[in-house]
Amino acid sequence: MDKKHIADLLAVLDKSNFDDIELRDADLYLHVRRGEVAHAPATKPAAVRPTNGKVVKSPMVGIVHLLDDAKKPFVEVGQTVKPGTTLAQIESMKLFNDITSPVAGTVAAIHVSDKQTVAYATPLFEITEAD
User: Where does the Lipoyl-binding domain lie (predicted)?
Assistant: First the structure.
Protein backbone atom coordinates (compact mmCIF):
# COMPACT_ATOMS: atom_id res chain seq x y z
CA MET A 1 0.00 0.00 0.00
CA ASP A 2 1.45 3.36 -0.95
CA LYS A 3 1.22 6.78 0.73
CA LYS A 4 -1.65 7.90 -1.52
CA HIS A 5 -3.82 4.95 -0.44
CA ILE A 6 -3.06 5.69 3.21
CA ALA A 7 -3.86 9.39 2.70
CA ASP A 8 -7.15 8.42 1.02
CA LEU A 9 -8.06 6.17 3.95
CA LEU A 10 -7.29 8.94 6.43
CA ALA A 11 -9.43 11.36 4.42
CA VAL A 12 -12.36 8.93 4.55
CA LEU A 13 -11.89 8.53 8.31
CA ASP A 14 -11.76 12.31 8.75
CA LYS A 15 -15.14 12.69 7.00
CA SER A 16 -16.77 9.78 8.84
CA ASN A 17 -18.21 9.28 12.31
CA PHE A 18 -15.64 6.60 13.14
CA ASP A 19 -13.37 7.18 16.12
CA ASP A 20 -11.17 4.20 15.40
CA ILE A 21 -10.12 2.23 12.32
CA GLU A 22 -7.86 -0.76 11.92
CA LEU A 23 -6.56 -2.16 8.64
CA ARG A 24 -4.56 -5.32 8.17
CA ASP A 25 -2.97 -6.30 4.88
CA ALA A 26 -0.30 -8.85 4.00
CA ASP A 27 2.47 -6.28 4.39
CA LEU A 28 0.78 -3.47 6.37
CA TYR A 29 -0.90 -2.90 9.71
CA LEU A 30 -2.56 0.50 10.22
CA HIS A 31 -4.44 1.54 13.35
CA VAL A 32 -5.76 5.10 13.65
CA ARG A 33 -7.65 6.45 16.66
CA ARG A 34 -9.09 9.93 16.95
CA GLY A 35 -8.39 11.31 20.43
CA GLU A 36 -10.27 9.79 23.32
CA VAL A 37 -13.44 7.89 22.56
CA ALA A 38 -16.27 10.06 23.89
CA HIS A 39 -18.72 7.26 24.68
CA ALA A 40 -18.45 4.44 27.19
CA PRO A 41 -19.56 0.97 26.14
CA ALA A 42 -22.73 -0.28 27.80
CA THR A 43 -20.74 -3.00 29.58
CA LYS A 44 -18.88 -0.42 31.71
CA PRO A 45 -21.42 1.55 33.78
CA ALA A 46 -19.15 1.83 36.82
CA ALA A 47 -15.95 2.58 34.90
CA VAL A 48 -16.34 6.33 35.25
CA ARG A 49 -16.64 6.18 39.04
CA PRO A 50 -13.18 6.17 40.66
CA THR A 51 -12.57 3.53 43.32
CA ASN A 52 -9.67 2.55 45.52
CA GLY A 53 -9.36 -0.98 44.19
CA LYS A 54 -6.59 -3.12 42.74
CA VAL A 55 -5.99 -2.21 39.09
CA VAL A 56 -5.40 -5.17 36.78
CA LYS A 57 -3.22 -4.05 33.87
CA SER A 58 -2.52 -5.70 30.54
CA PRO A 59 0.64 -7.80 30.66
CA MET A 60 1.01 -7.62 26.87
CA VAL A 61 -0.02 -5.92 23.63
CA GLY A 62 -3.05 -7.50 22.00
CA ILE A 63 -6.81 -7.57 21.55
CA VAL A 64 -8.99 -7.86 24.66
CA HIS A 65 -11.80 -10.41 24.62
CA LEU A 66 -14.35 -9.83 27.38
CA LEU A 67 -16.72 -12.57 26.16
CA ASP A 68 -16.23 -16.33 26.39
CA ASP A 69 -16.91 -18.83 23.59
CA ALA A 70 -20.64 -18.75 24.43
CA LYS A 71 -20.60 -14.92 23.98
CA LYS A 72 -21.17 -14.35 27.72
CA PRO A 73 -19.00 -11.92 29.71
CA PHE A 74 -16.22 -13.53 31.72
CA VAL A 75 -17.09 -11.07 34.52
CA GLU A 76 -19.38 -8.10 35.06
CA VAL A 77 -19.22 -5.02 37.28
CA GLY A 78 -20.40 -6.00 40.75
CA GLN A 79 -19.43 -9.65 40.39
CA THR A 80 -17.45 -11.29 43.20
CA VAL A 81 -14.16 -12.88 42.11
CA LYS A 82 -11.42 -14.87 43.79
CA PRO A 83 -7.74 -15.16 42.89
CA GLY A 84 -7.43 -17.00 39.58
CA THR A 85 -10.91 -16.10 38.27
CA THR A 86 -10.65 -15.42 34.53
CA LEU A 87 -11.51 -11.76 33.88
CA ALA A 88 -10.79 -11.68 30.14
CA GLN A 89 -8.47 -13.01 27.47
CA ILE A 90 -5.91 -11.12 25.43
CA GLU A 91 -5.25 -12.35 21.92
CA SER A 92 -1.64 -11.82 20.96
CA MET A 93 0.01 -13.42 17.94
CA LYS A 94 -3.05 -15.66 17.48
CA LEU A 95 -2.70 -17.02 21.03
CA PHE A 96 -5.33 -16.41 23.71
CA ASN A 97 -3.92 -15.57 27.15
CA ASP A 98 -6.14 -15.64 30.25
CA ILE A 99 -6.15 -12.52 32.40
CA THR A 100 -7.01 -13.59 35.94
CA SER A 101 -7.85 -11.81 39.15
CA PRO A 102 -4.85 -11.43 41.46
CA VAL A 103 -7.08 -10.87 44.54
CA ALA A 104 -10.44 -11.80 46.04
CA GLY A 105 -13.01 -9.05 45.82
CA THR A 106 -15.63 -7.37 43.65
CA VAL A 107 -15.20 -6.12 40.08
CA ALA A 108 -15.58 -2.35 40.53
CA ALA A 109 -14.82 -1.23 36.96
CA ILE A 110 -14.07 -2.51 33.49
CA HIS A 111 -11.85 0.00 31.71
CA VAL A 112 -11.84 -1.55 28.21
CA SER A 113 -14.38 -2.72 25.67
CA ASP A 114 -14.60 -6.07 23.93
CA LYS A 115 -12.15 -6.46 21.03
CA GLN A 116 -10.29 -3.28 21.94
CA THR A 117 -6.58 -3.20 21.10
CA VAL A 118 -4.49 -2.58 24.21
CA ALA A 119 -0.88 -1.76 24.90
CA TYR A 120 1.32 -3.12 27.66
CA ALA A 121 0.20 -1.86 31.11
CA THR A 122 -3.20 -0.59 29.90
CA PRO A 123 -5.63 -0.63 32.87
CA LEU A 124 -8.19 -3.37 32.21
CA PHE A 125 -10.12 -3.92 35.45
CA GLU A 126 -10.42 -2.51 38.92
CA ILE A 127 -11.19 -4.90 41.77
CA THR A 128 -12.19 -3.76 45.24
CA GLU A 129 -10.50 -6.21 47.59
CA ALA A 130 -12.59 -8.22 50.04
CA ASP A 131 -11.96 -7.58 53.73
Answer: 37-128
Domain interval for residue 27: 3-33
In order, the DSSP letters of 1-69 are --HHHHHHHHHHHHHSS-SEEEEEETTEEEEEE-SS-SS--TT-TTTTS----EEEE-SSSEEEE-B-T
In a domain, 112, yes or no: yes
Do 67 and 17 have their domain in common? no
pLDDT digits over 102-123, tens only? 999 999 999 999 999 999 999 9
How many domains in the chain?
A: 2
Domain match, 64 and 116 both: yes
Compute the distance between CA of residue 112 and CA of residue 65 in angstroms, rounded to an integer.
10
**Which residue, 103, 102, 99, is CA-closest to 129?**
103
What order of strands is seen across the sheet that includes strand 54-57? 54-57, 123-129, 105-110, 80-81
| Residue 40 domain-assigned (yes or no) | no
